[in-house]
Amino acid sequence: MWGVPRAGYHAARDVKDLGEFGFKAAGAFGPEARQEALRQGANNIQATLQYGREAVDDPSNVLSDVGDLSKAAIKSIDPRGAPMSGSLGDIIGYEFKKGANLGEGVANVAAAFAAPELGMGALRAATFDAKAASRIAKLANEGADPRLAEYLAEPYEGMGHHAIVPRRFKIPETIWGIPVDDRLAGKRLPRWIVDSPLNVSKPLGMSRDDFYKHHYGVDDRFYGARLPGDLNDGRGWSGKRQGARRYDPVTKVWAGMPVPLKGGVAAVGIGEGFGVPEVLDQGTPQ
Amino acid sequence: MKVKPWAGFIADFPDDQVEGGGRIILFGGRNVAVALAEILVGLGCRVSAPEYAELHGWDFDAHYKGHRLYCRVTSFHPAFHLLFEDPASARGPRRKSAQAYVELAVKLAAALEGDPRFRHLEWRSFDDGPPEPDEIGARSRRRADASSVIDPQGREKTRGLGGVFFALFTVLVGIGGLVYSWTGPRGDRYENLFCGVTLIVAGLLGLVVAELRRQNN
Lengths: 286, 217
What we know:
The complex is a heterodimer. By secondary structure, chain A is mainly α. Chain A is built from twelve helices and six strands. In chain A, helix 1 packs across helix 4 and helix 3 runs antiparallel to helix 4. The radius of gyration of chain A is 25 Å and the shape is extended. Chain B is an alpha+beta fold. Helices cover 37% and strands 24% of the residues of chain B. Chain B is built from four helices and eleven strands; from the N terminus they run ββββαβββββαββαα. Chains A and B meet through helix 1, helix 4 and strand 5 of A and strand 8, helix 3 and helix 4 of B.
């Protein structure tokens, strides 16, 4: 648990380094520092582009890197490297650091999953129109008549799933037995909180069918939705009939998490360069 | 004893769904929500005006004996789904609203059974979910009595305590971290201070959110 804010701390420190790099590149620290910063920047950009090209050619590379990251995290928490010197303080300090490495490793592995997911969402949104025909064909193959398939393949434009604060939430009259002020009790939270992008999950580039299935997966109170009267013989869309599945509790939290929150998780990892060097350096047994 | 919060029924009301250009502009069910709210007022409740919940339909609160209960109507005209639940049910059978919820659920079921505008009423547990719209009224069934809203074998469970314990644990780890930031290595002091404060703030925030969610299901 300690490692999660530590990953954020390291990410913030890296952002500070990035700022310094920006100043150097702008020439604020003299021409030599500027040349060095530009050379370093060019190398980094080249390496990133190369990684992107390789990921497109062979997506399994990304999975393999996530695996390497996990291995590095596991190595960094191996308790067999505990100091042989003996004071209790040393041992507690060592084990604390191992625990922190584990937390940081988990945060970075989560980030490694979040970042590609955000990329895939953006890609899905960018190619949404181009893939309309294939979405309709897929729905028709699943048994929808052409008009229903066309309707369900259109982009979903309604409100999303309220992941953290439910839409029906109202401030209770007491919290742990402490009475809440009458002016607040029974009121809804402001719309800017409840409908905030940090609370509402509405993944990018989803059709109606995609969103209904997604919503069915994450919301135990959603069983189906009505369709225009002339479609599907007036029966509406039913999650059970479509064979949609409810997610398990962990997947429900992850899948229901709004994109900007996932972006925050990804940012920690990106700020860390996915944390591999940090984890390797700090966790190497003495 | 546990209330079955889902119901499916056929209601003889005009379809108030608004469609245009081949899509739904306004989901229906408001007229049925208003009728249910009027029934609940007759049973001694104070109700809020139905609010639009898009594809979920229309929802409103009923306050009964000082407790808030939640109603949601989803239209599949002429079939409808009703979700009638106690937002605080995650707090378990010993919560203060439990008795009022059972009492009102039985009264509501009896009122709906006796109202000729509502037919083929069927109550379902939370886990079973509502009946499929086209199955409501398809089976010939004798009229249910008001007690069908109660599952006598059902046991309410206290839920959501995991979140509270996790938040408390986070606060404790944060406090431990603050102590460590002064007793631990000098070089890592600011890093540890940052982590400790972050965990305490996150834990306290989590504690409030977990408790509020338990009161709002």
